[in-house]
Design a protein that fits this description.
The protein is built from eleven helices and 33 strands. It has 710 residues and is of the alpha+beta class.
Length: 710
């Protein structure tokens, strides 16, 4: 029955109803609380004035909300719903149960007077604190509202059923245990509230205070008041008006407004309405039973969610631990490769150190022996051995000149770990299976008219199907390796067009794309086959060149503003295939040494090409040429350049060689071998030289004939 307690409490004071009355809107109020929230209205709004003007049709006239707005804080001093006026300086406040009500329109009567006996101000208005409907009282005031005797009886039975100690009815927050009850006020008090609200002086001194238990008994033994007619207070209800839906007395039927209405016996209607209420309660009981079963289901779901969460977290941790273990195993494998490379480099360098040490010891011994021979004064004896010694010295010198003083191994580790696909996969790791009911996007459509290749770059475009209703959050573009190998991701994002650079020349690539959202990944689009250019068309790159380089002729012609050598690269890099380009010498003054060749993207730009280990070049003057890499000069070859000469560079990455030519004739032997990596065409020159680049050329005849013989 504790769940019913809120139904038994007044919305104004928050306590159990005391002498409850029924408003026309069917809500209840304590009679004292109803009097406290009365508001006095202007004379023109009274029922008498309305009846005089012919506009009144009922004893209770409801006010429209726009009329109620006339009583603003500026006009009458009354604000919107607030509560009892407990102090003159606060026009409104909140009631204990949170409902906002109007303050009294005039000072309340003495506490010992009954609320029903207190005079009601003329032209008073009352507003229901629950539905906010307002009405103007007639001359009867609050006596015109019927009293809810049934609600009083329910409250009495409820209070009698509670075995707990009686609580104080005036405590504002947590009610304390009552210590006394006033029989005249019919109120239970705790000691603080009794001293504050019921002092033993004045008229209150004559009230009889009894223990709470005795007060409960006296309440229980008090006779139930019989419901009387609101229009004829001395008459009991005897009939029921069907049209007005209210009990009436016999005088109402004879001379009142119910005389022409249909009436029925009070007992018969009582039984009928009890039966209707019971039937309505049956349906509500079924709903309450369903609600209880639903609550049990929800509580079981809470337990199941907790269990599933623990299980899912354990599964997630196990999956992540498996990924970490796999990454650690791969890490160990990669470290093993690094260690092998480390040992290999050390072995090569140490072997070269040992070899050079032995040769240096032999050279030093030969030098000391020759110096001792020179000291001899015997001409005939000297001439007998001098020719042999001179040949040995020259042979030893030649042995030192054939790359002996060039390191066979670089200090850099040519290992580049490509972790981009793995990082992308980690970023894409998500619970896409959490929403299986949502569909995945449709497979994208490749826009063939927008897909193309240029040199070693490929541009692809795609879109969602026109009738697709599932939005894609992004796309994944995949290409194979140009040899029919496995596909790899080259783009992940929201764009529908992508250009892939750095492909191999003269290669056939397959491309496909798929869409994804939070639910999952779509099917692949149709596979598109792309062919890169057989030969490369490119120009010099101003973006990576030294600032002293001067460009012209659409970046095909370059010179320099400095007397020092400066490096400029081509825009296209090569890692596969056979590529040939030429450079025409447009200006050549004062015997400079321009250099031609290839270089890595990070080559030094402020020195001659080939001075560092990032470039492989041939530098040439007007008489001869040399090959140079890492500042090592080799293979001096007769034949130089003049104005109008043509220098050819042939990079064969299939055979891993680099060859040079001057005026269509091969210059020296194969310049460099074991060429692996990404190489850019490169030139170094100063202000005395100007060259023009020619690209897209076929392989020269001297190389084609040699390749056919091989």
């Amino acid at each position: 029955m504790e769940e019913m307690e809120e139904e038994l409490k007044c919305p104004v004071c928050g306590s159990f109803y005391r002498e409850p009355i029924i408003l026309p809107c069917s809500h209840n109020l304590c009679q004292a609380c109803a009097r406290n929230i009365l508001v006095q209205t202007p004379e023109s709004e009274s029922p008498q004035s309305r009846r005089a003007s012919g506009s009144g049709v009922s004893d209770y006239d409801y006010l429209d909300m726009d009329k109620m707005s006339l009583y603003s804080e500026a006009d009458s001093g009354y604000g919107s719903y607030a509560g009892f006026a407990s102090a003159p300086t606060t026009p409104c406040q909140k009631s204990p149960n949170g409902v906002r009500v109007f303050p009294p329109a005039m000072p309340p009567p003495a506490a010992h007077l009954s609320a029903s006996l207190a005079p009601v101000p003329r032209n008073s208005c009352i507003t229901c604190p629950q539905c906010h409907r307002s009405l103007i009282l007639d001359d009867r005031g609050l006596r015109g509202f019927p009293k809810n005797r049934v609600l009083e009886g329910v409250i009495d039975r409820y209070q009698q059923s509670k075995a707990a100690a009686l609580k104080c009815q005036l405590c504002e927050k947590a009610p304390k245990e009552a210590t006394v009850m006033c029989e005249q006020c019919d109120v239970f008090y705790c000691d603080p509230c009794r001293l504050r609200c019921h002092p033993p002086r004045g008229p209150l001194a004559k009230h009889r205070l009894v223990p709470p238990a005795q007060g409960r008994v006296s309440r229980r033994l008090s006779p139930r008041k019989i419901s009387t007619c609101t229009d004829h207070e001395l008459e009991n209800h005897s009939m029921y008006c069907v049209q007005c839906k209210m009990p009436v007395c016999y005088q109402c039927l004879e001379e009142g407004k119910h005389s022409s209405h249909e009436v029925k016996a009070l007992g018969a209607m009582w039984k009928l309405h009890k039966s209707q209420l019971s039937q309505a309660l049956n349906g509500l009981s079924d709903r309450a039973k369903e609600a209880k079963e639903f609550l049990v289901q929800l509580r079981n779901m809470v337990q199941q969610i907790q269990e599933n969460s623990v299980e899912f977290e354990a599964c997630l941790v196990a999956q992540c631990d498996a990924l970490i273990d796999a990454l650690n195993r791969r890490k160990a494998q990669l470290l093993s490769r690094v260690n092998k490379e480390h040992e290999h480099k050390l072995k090569v360098v140490r072997d070269q150190i040992s070899h050079c040490t032995v040769k240096l010891r032999q050279t030093t011994g030969l030098m000391e022996y020759c110096l001792e021979v020179i000291k001899e004064n015997d001409p005939s004896g000297f001439l007998q051995i001098s020719d042999a010694l001179i040949r040995r010295v020259h042979m030893t010198e030649d042995q030192w000149g054939k790359g002996t003083l060039t390191p066979r191994m670089t200090t850099d580790f040519d290992l580049n770990l490509d972790n981009t696909p793995l990082l992308q996969s980690i970023h894409q790791l998500d619970f896409v299976q959490m929403k299986p009911s949502s569909p995945v996007p449709a497979a994208p459509l490749l826009q063939l008219e927008d897909c193309c290749t240029h040199n070693n770059s490929a541009t692809l475009s795609w879109k969602q199907p026109p009738l697709s209703t599932v939005m894609a959050e992004g796309y994944i573009l995949e290409l194979d390796d140009g040899n029919g190998g496995q596909f790899r991701e080259v783009y992940v994002g929201k764009e529908t067009m992508c250009t892939v650079d750095g492909l191999h020349f003269n290669s056939t690539y397959s491309a496909r794309v798929k869409a994804f959202n939070k639910t999952g990944v779509s099917q692949y689009s149709k596979t598109l086959v792309l062919q890169t250019s057989e030969v490369a068309w490119f120009a010099f790159d101003p973006g990576s060149a030294h600032s002293d380089i001067i460009f012209s002729n659409d970046n095909l012609t370059v010179t320099c503003s400095s007397y020092d050598d400066r490096v400029v690269l081509g825009k296209t890099g090569f890692s596969k295939g056979v590529h040939y380009w030429e450079l025409t010498v447009d200006r050549y003054d004062n015997h400079p040494d321009p250099a031609f060749g290839v270089a890595c993207i990070d080559v030094l730009k402020d020195m001659m090409l080939g001075k560092d280990d990032k470039a492989w070049a041939m530098y040439v003057d007007n008489n001869r040429s040399w090959f140079m890499h890492n500042n090592s000069h080799t293979n001096r070859t007769e034949g130089g350049i003049t104005k109008g000469a043509t220098v050819g560079v042939l990079l064969d990455l299939n055979r891993k060689t680099l060859t040079f030519s001057i005026n269509e004739d091969q210059q020296g032997p194969i310049a460099f071998e074991n060429m692996e990596g990404l190489f850019f065409p490169a030139v170094s020159l100063n202000r005395n030289v100007q060259v023009t680049l020619h690209t897209g050329l076929p392989v020269p005849d001297f190389y084609s004939s040699r390749a056919s013989i091989a």
